[in-house]
Write a structure and sequence with these properties.
Elements: H1 14-27, H2 31-55, H3 64-72
Helix pairs in contact: 1-2
Protein name: CopG family transcriptional regulator
Length: 77
């Protein structure tokens, strides 16, 4: 662990903690590494979602009723 890491307590369900410990042993990694990777991936997915929303911010809104009507129209028309 580097000097730049920050220690913080987290509370896990016992089964989750056991699963992480087993995964850490199987992969020769620490529980901290596994948790950091999982959090990093989740934050990256959130950033992608926010970017996608930002790209579409100027698109016109479509009401549920309009969308429903469009879905009811057969594709061959």
């Amino acid at each position: 662990m580097s000097a730049l890491t920050k220690r913080t307590p987290i509370y896990l369900a016992p089964a989750m903690h056991r699963a992480l410990q087993h995964k850490a042993l199987e992969t020769s990694r620490s529980v901290s590494d596994l948790v950091n990777d999982a959090v990093r991936k989740t934050l990256a997915e959130d950033a992608e979602d926010l970017a996608a929303f930002q790209e579409r911010v100027n698109e016109p809104l479509v009401t549920y009723e309009c969308l429903f009507k469009e879905l009811k129209v057969p594709l061959n028309q």
